[in-house]
Amino acid sequence: MTESRTDPLTPPERPAPTNGRKAPVPKQKRPGKYRVPPRKDRHGLVIVNTGNGKGKTTAALGLLLRAAGRDLSIGMFQFIKSAETRYGEHVAAERLGIEIVSLGDGFTWLSENIAADRALAERGWSRVRDVLDAGTFDVLILDELTYCLKFGWLDTTMVVDAIRSRPAGTHIVITGRDAPQELIDAADLVTEMRLIKHPYREQGIGAQPGIEL
Q1: Of 47, 16, 51, 21, the residue nearest 196 (C-alpha)
Q2: C-alpha distance from residue 26 to each of 5, 14, 23, 29, 58 (Å)
Q3: Would you please indicate which residues are annotated as catalytic (active-site) residues?
Q4: Ranked by mean pLDDT, which of 18-32, 45-59, 80-94 comes out on top?
Q5: pLDDT value of position 17
Q6: Prediction pTM value
Q7: Nearest-CA neighbor of 141 among 178, 89, 185, 91?
Q8: d(CA 192, CA 47)
């Protein structure tokens, strides 16, 4: 019986085979370089993060970070957040050389000026459509777009048709509650965030810098 190892970095001794044959040596796997193929050779995905649980935008920002690590070009447009407010993700994205564009006027579902909300959404979509048609980005994140569809500020069929006709290899990420079925049907990956507990609902803890904003 061999003595136990005292140095965890020392490889364990292999027991001598009883049949006289050499024991097999396991292959040492080394991580290789992950080559990003040209856009024309990629499988461009439509990814939807929906549901009433927290984490939809956060998951999209995690993908943004991963894509930036692979030197992919990334655009993020936020349809509800106001351009007058800077959140933590805006500051971090700027350090990565990525611009996050806020297109809305804050929590517009509380607004009484629906015409203005619709006009903001339409202007925002026009900007998105320009970069989508031009193939400007490898990854395009459309944060909180589903609210514009739910409230009827943008036509769902028009949006889905534009996404389907995007340049080959372009990844689209869409976030927000109540994703319409037409969008879900067009997506390749749909994740539903389900609310189980929330610090505000159960404990009255409000939004905190670095977590929600």
Answers
A1: 51
A2: 19, 11, 9, 9, 40
A3: 52, 54, 56-58, 66, 107, 109, 144
A4: 45-59
A5: 65
A6: 0.82
A7: 89
A8: 11
